[in-house]
Amino acid sequence: MFCENCGKNIGDASVCPFCNYGADPTPVEPTPPAYTPTPVEQATPAYNPTPAEPAAPTYTPASNDAPTPPAYQSSYPYQQQMPDRPAPQPYPLGSSIPTPTDTPKKSKKKILIPVIIGIVVLLIGGGVAAFFLTAPMRSYNHAMGLKEEGNYDEAITEFTELGDYSDSADQITDCKYLKAKKMLSDKKFEDAIKAFEKLGSYKDSKDQITAANYGIAQKLLDDGEYKDAKSAFNALGDYKDSADKIKYCDYMIAKDMITSDPSTAISAFEKLGTDYEDCAQLIKDAKMSYCKKNKNNYNTTTYKYLTELVKAKYTGAAALYKELYTWRLTKVFWNTDNTNNLISSKKTTISNKNDIVLHFSLEGGKPNESVLVYYTLVWTSGKVERDHYDKPSRNYTLTLKTDGTGTIKVALFTSTKQKLGTYSIKVTN
């Protein structure tokens, strides 16, 4: 059964539960009439025992005026469904129509504004709280950024201000470690060593100190401070190529001593080996330097070195060998006294009434070598005599007597037929 007032299905009820139709005529606040759309003619649908969902309303504008509302299709077959809003309830004749009291509705804006304000306050409050609560985190992240950029001093300052937040203490230590490594890469070795020493056993700080000491030794080597560099590399033991660096220091030290201390240089080069660098050539250079400093034919070492150098065709060795080991005469002069070997007693003219004495000294030869001296004598008359000394010596005298006048000549030779020289004296009455 359907309500005669609202048209809704109320079953067997005598009073409509939707619009209260059929109850005692108690005045009911009238419901404003609902907008009733003009129905549009539709084809009668085929019978379907299962109620279909109502189709979406379609608005077809009739003209430029207000659009014509769509027709309402009932969900029940063959019957149009009435609108849900109840129609105005009729009142009995003679009864007065109650005047509705308008109850003003609260404005949605007035309700929303306080709500929005509250939400904003909550959000702002929460944001402020979050800002202050996350401040350490933001400072920490900023400090980490400084660390990654290599600004270690600034990072250390910010981590220090964070106190015991997170792992700030560990980050400070790590920043100091990275700062020390930067010093090492910048060749600030002394500063790096001090920084790593303060870090103690942190990470590989001890190894980094060794690396810094190696850098110091290398710098000394590069600056030509070979003795100090050698000491520094010695202190490093077998670190990296320290042994090779020590050997190179010995090589450079020896090179510096070729002129000043050739004997030590020769020993150093021989210890390094002739296959190390150019030691074979430097040994020859040092030996030549020694021979020039010890230009003495009696020195067996000089003779040994010069013999080797002549054999090796070292430049200048043959000339020096000839200078030292070729027999030659020195202090050759004439006087009248065979015991007076002072060159200041030299005479150029001697009377035939005195002894005529030739003084000369023999130098040269190999160490400990001796040689006999031969001579050819030409008298004032032109007579020639040949003779020699009975034993080798370094200092000689030849005493002559003559009653003639003129020039006496004496030519001197070695037993190996090397001519030493010819000397003459003028004889007068």
Percent of residues in helices: 25-40%
% residues in beta strands? 5-15%
Radius of gyration in whole Å, from Cα?
Answer: 66 Å
The parts where pLDDT drops under 50 for at least 5 residues are 36-52, 54-82
Q: Please provide the count of β strands.
A: 8
What would you say about this model in short?
This protein is an alpha+beta fold.
Explain what this protein looks like in three dimensions:
This protein starts with 107 loop residues before the first helix and ends with a strand. Among the domains are: 1-39, no CATH class; 137-293, no CATH class; 326-428, Macroglobulin (MG2) domain (Immunoglobulin-like, Sandwich), CATH 2.60.40. It has helices at 108-133, 135-149, 152-161, 168-185, 189-199, 205-222, 226-235, 242-256, 262-272, 279-293, 300-311, 317-325; strands spanning 328-335, 349-351, 356-363, 373-378, 384-388, 395-400, 406-414, 419-428. Helix content is 40%, strand content 13%. The protein has 429 residues and is α+β, with helices and mostly antiparallel strands. The strands form two sheets. Strands 2-8-7-4-5 form a five-stranded mixed sheet, with no helix packed on it. A three-stranded antiparallel sheet has the order 1-3-6, with no helix packed on it.
